[in-house]
Amino acid sequence: MKIKKIGVIYGGRSSEREVSLKTGAAIAKALKKEKFSTVLIDSGKKDFIKKLLSLKIDFAFIALHGPFGEDGTMQGLLEILSIPYSGSGVLASALAINKIYSKKIFESENIPTPKWQIITNYKLQITNYKLPVVIKPARQGSAIGITIVRKKSQLKKAIKNALKYDDKAIIEEYIEGTEITVPILGDKPLSPIEIIPKNEFYDFYSKYAAGGSRHLIPPRLSPKIIDKAKQLGLLAHKSLRCRAMSRVDMIVDKKSDIYVLEVNTIPGMTATSLFPESAKYDGYTFGDLIKKIVELSLNEKTQS
Hints:
Layout: E1 5-10, H1 17-33, E2 37-42, H2 48-55, E3 59-62, H3 73-80, H4 90-97, H5 99-108, E4 116-119, E5 133-137, E6 147-149, H6 155-163, E7 169-173, E8 177-185, E9 188-189, E10 193-197, H7 204-208, E11 213-216, H8 223-239, E12 245-253, E13 258-264, H9 274-281, H10 286-299
Parallel strand pairs: 1-2, 1-3
Antiparallel strand pairs: 4-7, 5-6, 5-7, 8-9, 8-10, 8-12, 10-11, 12-13
């Protein structure tokens, strides 16, 4: 299929709107440099559907983060409109953003993930967990709503905070260790990155503020562990039926055991983003990376 016009769908209505605006602008700039006719379409605007139809695009590059973009809803709309789009299909997108269902799949596929349980209210009694623990919304990205709880007195506030963003949250075993991420491009894991956040963990500030974290390629791990992390990343990607790209976040404990935390189906593409940094290390320019994602999205079978 020859692409005549690409619409970069960005902005949106989630709490990650500002990040999406940056991601979308960077992608559109790269596509224009690669000689694609490109338009930016803000899905957070009231006239979004009207504009989407009027522009007559023949490919949509989805640059949205969080609900109403990364969760299968935008993918479903584009399926109905018969517009090919970047990245994972409806099912994979919905599964990956929901930590409850992605963790259930990890467990069924024997992919190691920290011990966890569902939270629906702040009256939870900790019985099976030693502090610290991690409290996080079931469906959010960019570490929004996440708290590391080190004292029992912090638990109620942390749960209330997580439940502001979704009607379910999870409590997760806290694993101390080395934070890494493995980008997946097609069926190939790229070079893992070690993340050293300035704050307590890789939170919103650490992800997006200049100097918020240090990134090391390769990570300070043995070649054997790095290779194992790459294979686990690809397995997690495939277990959720992801397509074209994803980024798999993990933690490696002091015994060198690897735990998969989550899969991001639409990784950030800002100036401080991990996916393009890894791709650059592996020899891709930013333009090459974006073109490759378009190509893979068109050629890989949609897993809807």
